[in-house]
Amino acid sequence: GYWVSEWYRHASRDDVESMWQELADMSQNAGLDVPVEKAYSLEEAREAMEHSMQSGRTGKIFFKP
Q: What pLDDT shows up at residue 2?
């Protein structure tokens, strides 16, 4: 993930569009790699939240549909 709300306040429309285009291009070309540590079902929400708060994780915690 990334935090861009402060950047959005000061970025021009061209900069925002350029950033989103670059991210779209990277996602299409496998240029974005998001390590996933574990995916949980919605029924396992409590376990997923507990896992997400552990230190030393090596990837994201996701809910799988």
A: 61
